[in-house]
Design brief:
The protein is of the alpha+beta class and 165 residues long. It has three helices and twelve strands.
Length: 165
Amino acid sequence: MSDAYEEIINGQRIHRRPPSKYHEVLVARLHRLVEEFLPLNSTLRLLPPRATLDLEGQSLLRPDLALIRVEPSTEAAPRPVKLYLVAEVLDPGDHHCDTVVKKQLWTDGRLPRLWMVDPRYLNVEIYGCVEHGFSLIDILANQQTLTDPYLPGLNCSMHELFAGT
């Protein structure tokens, strides 16, 4: 089991309890899947689990999985970094922060893609950013597969994702 950790949401410190073993198995599995199908020449970079992300100085969030896009640099400008994908694995009894509060912050930050992994229901909700916030693209369950246009080859069934957990 991992240690407890802290996030800052809109300037307020939030103490998060240690994730369960089950939670950490899913986080590790997601990281392996994304890493495996991330193209070598991709502008996307996978951050370590719960890497700290600064959202405009008011919030420091630590998502379970984060992919950033690193654009090519020029001599005059540094390499701009933009968040592309966040995945949150929900922990029973501690999911309000991820499903409501942080989801709103990701919406406000115009995050292109959000995966909400819910082990209670063995499903993944896929959200995409549209003009007025997030739009639910799909809810994956049973034998449906998790894919992403920037991760060619990623084709993980919900049965495979949640196997043995």
